Amino acid sequence: MEGNQLPCQASYMRNALFNQGYLDDQFLQLEDLQDEANPHFVEEVVKLFYSDSARLIRNIELTLENTPSDFEKLDNIMHQYKGSSSSIGAKKVKKECTQFQEYCEVENIDGCLRTFQEVKQEHASLKRKLENYFQLVREAR
Amino acid sequence: MTVEKIMSDSESYDDFPARLRVLAVDDNPICLKLLETLLRKCQYHVTTTSQARMALKMLRENKDRFDLVISDVHMPDMDGFKLLELVGLEMDLPVIMLSANGDPKLVMKGITHGACDYLVKPVRIEELRNIWQHVIRKKRTEPKNQNGSADQGNDNQSSGEGNGSQADRNGKCNRKRKDEEDFSEDNENENEDPAASKKPRVVWSIQLHRKFVVAVNQLGIEKAVPKRILDLMNVEGLTRENVASHLQKYRLYLKRISSVASQQANMVAALGVKDSHFMRTAPFEGLGDFRTLSGQGRFASAALSHYTTGGMFGRLNTPNVNLRNLSPSTLIQPDHGQNITNSISSLGKVHPALASTNQSQSLFQGIPSSLELDQLQQSKCGTGMTSFNAIDNSRLRSRFSDPGAAINSSSNIFNSSTNMMLHGSYQQTMSGGGFGNQSSQNMASLNLDTFNVGVNSSSSLLDSGTIQSSTTQPASLLSTEPFHSQPPMRTTGNSGFSNDPYLQKNPIDISSSTMSLPLEDSREMQYQQGLVGDVQNISHIPSQRWGEQGQSYGHGSTATFGSLNAHVPVSGVVSPLSHSLDQDSGIVNEKMGVFMNGRFAGGASTLMLQNGNEKLASESRAMANDSFLLEQQKIQTVFAPRSYDPLDAMMNAMIKREQDETIANYDFGFDDYSFESGM
């Protein structure tokens, strides 16, 4: 592609992600940490996030299936997941995580189940978008 | 790197914050990676691990390898707060907590456990840029020593030991190892340890404290001013500021003791267990490993046995000494292990006389780590020498509600314990105490000595007075008080002195009183004087209160038995070493303040009973041994039972009985450990 387009596309997409609330300032922090010494830092962290969080999501699913009343456990796993997602700046995901934890607090299993669906959706949606974004960035390099 | 080193290197001063060696612990890989990158960006040297146990291992392998630790709260293999306590106690390094949860309650918990700071994830780089201040602050805290005087000489040794800093924890640990010789040199306080990154601090060793107490007594507590005390002490390297701050603590201790007199809890002579030492000795990891302390605790048990004579106490009741439950068990964790026993014994010996120094001085005698001292009414005596020994300061702290309890900081503690109890007068008694001198005579003897030192400990130890038996787990003890020795562990007011860091709380039966000794809280230990250490157990002291475990502070005689810890189930309420002891400055006996509440399990009570006033010395030794002195000094002070009163004999007997019990308590005050174990 034309060299000058890609960067635009990538930056366009990046802006959209921020504007639409998918990412917050924390993502900027990640970008700030990227430098010559660490040229692919952001992408690396995001990848790490997705591989680690897949495991956490799976754990929550299992717990909801097997021991849905174990709110403490659910809360613990979600706490981990929330920590990770907030570290990369995943704004919407984080919001759903907080909601989920609130339901755990009051032991509302239905609320948890519903919110968990939202969590998964946001998780998948952001993942797609970021994958596209990094693809654009790579192509632009 | 030490501050001095850093600062002294003028060229590098500008980029001082750089090169800071940080250990980052977080089980979440994303957060860990992010943290690592952020820290590198700040030009710090970063080491990461996702396991708390690994982190501890690394820290223990080389105490000087890191300047700061950043740890997540939520970790699968170990609770972040626990790690925090351990690090604080053993290594006395600044620890910053990290969590995705910013709930103020959790933040508060972090602070009370001794965290220097609490950051909420996601962490921003700006926040990390400032963390170096915690390192500097820590180094500067405590003895105003900071002085750049890098006393390499001394400190070399101490460096390992944890430069006198904080609550002796470190120092104590190290100290203990180094033994007294080092200690004595170092004692000059300034443990500056140029090599070590620890902050240079004046370590109030038992001897030093004793000198202090002697000086104070000579001048009269009312008229004692730092300058004059300093002159009288004639210790090289000691500054007026050091003395002033120590005096302040001592005064608090005394106050606490007197107030404790009315309460029972006093006792717990903050088992001066200097946690650091204990920590080391006992596998800290398990905190609960106090049991291992038992080894050390031997002392405790021994001591306790003395104490246990709670009944004895009743008899012994030497007018002055009311040994409250000196739960010798807790404290006694002297590094030397032995000490504790000594301390305990010393506790027993702690003559009530000690108690009186100020009357209120309830020296907590041997505040058993758990500071069971509640009973110590007299806590004044501070005899509760809580042998803080291992008392986790941190632990103790929390537990130790009693003031004495916290006798953490080994160095201080001890002093406090002893001091406390003996309030200065001891000086002699301590050694004599013949307390059950159990095994570690060292302790005992030391204790006695330390008692004199009392000053330091007193503050801390006395927490015992209030050592509430709350059996709180030792671990928490410390947490409550952020190690800093300062916060008197909640000790209820025991001996005004320091929070009995070591009050190991004896688990209710003193025996288990975990040493609430705040020992170490390394950070906290600041108490140095403040025995407070983490007297964790403060809560323990259930009935026994005995000065928490007999922490017998072996402080020199005055110190009362600090080591009473734990066991000393001082059943009889040992009136805090009857403060009534005449205030003679040298009279240790009076001050016995062994608070052993009744229970004095073990020697502690006997200590008090010594009534002989002089006896206190021995008692205190026993008690104090553990806690305080032990730490570093090898509390070898053999307690030469000075005036071994018949009571002592009884006490010893009792203590022996209690031994078993006490030892259990000995726990360094680490959580529950001691108490439950009841060893």
From TrEMBL, chain A:
Major localization class: cytoplasm
Lineage top rank: taxon: Eukaryota
Localization, UniProt: Cytoplasm, Cytosol; Nucleus
Keyword Zinc: no
PTM sites of type Phosphohistidine: H79
PROSITE patterns cross-referenced by the UniProt entry: HPT
Name of this chain's protein: Histidine-containing phosphotransfer protein
From TrEMBL, chain B:
Modified residues annotated as 4-aspartylphosphate in this record: D72
InterPro entries linked to this entry: ARR-like (IPR045279), CheY-like_superfamily (IPR011006), Homeodomain-like_sf (IPR009057), Myb_dom (IPR017930), Myb_dom_plants (IPR006447), Response_reg_B-typ_pln (IPR017053), SANT/Myb (IPR001005), Sig_transdc_resp-reg_receiver (IPR001789)
Main location: nucleus
Pfam families hit by this protein: Myb_DNA-binding, Response_reg
Domain HTH myb-type: 196-255
UniProt biased composition (Polar residues): 144-168
GO cellular component, as recorded: nucleus
A GO molecular function held by the record: DNA binding
Domain of life of the organism encoding this protein: Eukaryota
One of the GO BP terms on file: cytokinin-activated signaling pathway
UniProt KW keywords: Activator, Cytokinin signaling pathway, DNA-binding, Nucleus, Phosphoprotein, Transcription, Transcription regulation, Two-component regulatory system
Residues in Response regulatory domain copies: 21-136
Compartments reported by the entry: Nucleus
Region Disordered, residue ranges: 139-199, 463-488
Composition skew (Acidic residues), residue ranges: 181-193
Protein family: Belongs to the ARR family. Type-B subfamily.
Function description: Transcriptional activator that binds specific DNA sequence.
Identification of the protein by name: Two-component response regulator
